[in-house]
Amino acid sequence: MTSIALIRPAEWRDFLALTKPRVMSLVIFTGLCGLLAAPEQINPVLGFTAILCIAVGAGGAAALNQWWEADIDAGMRRTAERPLPAGRMDRTSARDFGVALAGTSVFVMGLAIGWLAAAILTVSIIYYALIYTVWLKPRTPQNIVIGGGAGAFPPLIGWVAATGHVSLMPVVLFLIIFMWTPPHFWALALFVQSDYAKVGIPMMPVVAGEVVTRRLIVIYAALLLPLSLVPCLIPASLGGAGSLYGWVAGVCSTAFLVAAIRVGLRRRNGEDDTMKPEKQLFAISIIYLFALFAALVAAKWVQG
Length: 304
Fold this sequence. Notes:
Helices cover 72% and strands 0% of the residues. It has 304 residues and is mainly α. The protein folds into 2 domains: 1-166, Orthogonal Bundle (Tetracycline Repressor, domain 2); 167-304. Helix 2 (21-37) runs antiparallel to helix 3 (44-68) and helix 9 packs antiparallel against helix 14. The N and C termini lie far apart (57 Å).
């Protein structure tokens, strides 16, 4: 295992990097969309507080993830420049920072918004920092399938923050992200599989091979298409989306499936290692999720 570099004093940028800002942008956006799409309105100040707690909780979980995986990150090109493996921070500081963020987010969410939202936020933090990071990721190629639930909580939390209860619609939103996660992450795993193999992480391409992984990407993308249309079948009185969302979801999910099929049908040869279709699918998957949840909010505004 590659050793972690010598420690030097951490800067604020290093603490920010621990929260995985690019990942957090999706967390914030889907959480905000869940809050805005809910059938009940929330005071803007409380709404901002709820989204801030979701962001801080996700950042705390990400910091704990990097604290636990510091040695693994040091052995991967993609993660070697993170604060811990690069020697810009000591592990104790990262751990304490993560615990502080996670604990504060749950406490403030409970006091300001409600303890149901705080409880779900707690589950999401534990799911990512403990169940996925410590248990699933190093043990099974199904890690990202089961662990996909970690990133699916934000719209559910946002919805509960606005309404105070769980209903069918936020559960469907949870399932959409849950089903979206495997093809999204396996596209990344395909073009960085050598890194995972090097540090002994049993990602699907490493354990089952590229052919199986590509087939699974297509299967999950195909299952995601009908699931993405379920919100427009739920009555508006229960927070369901309308035809506008249905059209956007249909078009975007079809485009996502086409990109997945391109990856699924591709067979690499020794001279072709650009992985362009896989990188395109990874990028498209991010755009897809933004578009889908933006359409969800737009549909509510159109419906009035």
